[in-house]
Amino acid sequence: MFFHAHPDDEALLTAGTMAMLAAEGHRVVLVVATAGERGLAAMEPGDELGRTRLEELYESAALLGCARVECLGYGDSGLSPAGGVADERPDNAFIDADTEEAAGRLAAILREEQADLLSIYDPAGGYGHPDHVQVHRVGRRAAEIAGTEIVLEATVNRDPLVKLLRMAGKVYRFPPEFDVRTFESAYSPGETITHRVNVRRFAKQKRASMSAHASQASGGESDRTLAVMLKVPYPLYRLVFGTEWFVRRDVPPGTRLRHPLDPGPK
């Protein structure tokens, strides 16, 4: 089971691994906390955007071979720190959800599916979106309740990422909302990563998954991150996006596992 905050998050962080597991015959389940109705897009934020993004999510999931898709139905908390001012958030914002209640709902799906593995985010929520941080908290607790043994934190090796972004910033003007400095403390340092999953064989599925989220490739005054990624020529795309990273906290530091279902050292 892969637990994400919003539609399109699965495409960016775990699509290749999901496609790989589905191709191997595993039942892959995708759960999102929100419909992403407050995301930046050409459409106005609200219910219509949420419905559009869920439709895109189902298309993406089908391309990746997912057997089931669920949305927990919480409100998108928005991008600002801690979800922004409380009165600007929806009444059911995910960031305001009771952790135990939300975890219980997720745990019920884990038990129903008899899931062997739950994928969430690292403690920082990747780049710090409040809903991503909440996914970490809720996911961790849900795994405890359901007794799901393998919990992987989907992340990015920030060491080469920061170097790459600094180099790219010399020749490319990033969108105004994109601050390279935020990545210096985002995601996970290389020494903490336990899984480096080679997903190059599934790069076409990953790219198609990204393309399915058309609403997130537009909006704002400049190119969105997703749109920039989709402009990368396929041979380079396969190289750059051909690895997905995870951290498993219950194995010794320095352990290197090559498959998400590797049981690890005993």
Automatic annotation (TrEMBL):
Keywords: Zinc. Pfam families: PIG-L. GO terms for biological process: glycoside metabolic process. InterPro entries: GlcNAc_PI_deacetylase-related, LmbE-like_dom_sf. GO terms for molecular function: hydrolase activity, acting on carbon-nitrogen (but not peptide) bonds, in linear amides. Signal peptide: none annotated. The keyword Zinc applies. This is GlcNAc-PI de-N-acetylase. It comes from Nonomuraea cavernae.
